[in-house]
Ribosome assembly factor mrt4 (Nepenthes gracilis), 229 residues
Amino acid sequence: MPKSKRNRPVTLSKTKKKGREHKEVIVSGIRDAVDSYTSVFVFTYENMRNLKFKEFREQLKSTSRFFLGSNKVMQVALGRSIADEIRPGIHKVSKLLRGNSGLLVTNMAKDEVRQLFDEYEDYDFARTGSNATETVELKEGPLDQFTHEMEPFLRKQGMPVRLNKGVVELVSDFVVCEEGKPLSPESARILRLLGNKMATFKLYLVCRWSVDEFELYKEAPDDSDVESL
């Protein structure tokens, strides 16, 4: 096995002492994991939900480790070029850490990992600023799903409602959101009340590295295309 370069000194960006120490812990953890596991995957994600990701990570904790955080710190840990990479060819992984990305370091078979990622998705309520995946319009008339106590709150969200004999009623048609347009805070709240889950938390594999193989599955997005954690 080629000699590991993981013990080389690392120059990190200018930070306060506490921040630097934290980065050094991450770098050390990644390098330890690369030495201990057989494969390294880069993955990207959409609509991250921390609780759901924690549950997914727990399923694999006996065979794998996940790393999320600063792409630059993870790149430093792996090495950004042939000259400073910690294992032969692993700088190719580093170059694909862009945007909403993370590392999976694992002993699982590659086909098993790909199946898990391909099959995993979880639905949740969309957040303010997310693009609506469909147009939602409520028609004039009674809104039986809401109790009369909800009428003042619904009015504050911009809905043209009134109480009619104790029943919440729309006095005119109301468009909650339009497909492809960003959700306002009010729209996001109404969709939650309606039980309409527009966000899909999804993980995508970008590439895999092992001692004897590098596989590219899909291109990682540019930093400008996604919002970091």
About this structure: Helices lie at 17-36, 50-59, 71-78, 91-95, 110-119, 151-156, 185-194. Residues 80 and 95 are 7 Å apart (CA to CA). Residues 222-229 have pLDDT under 50 and may be disordered. The longest helix spans residues 17-36.
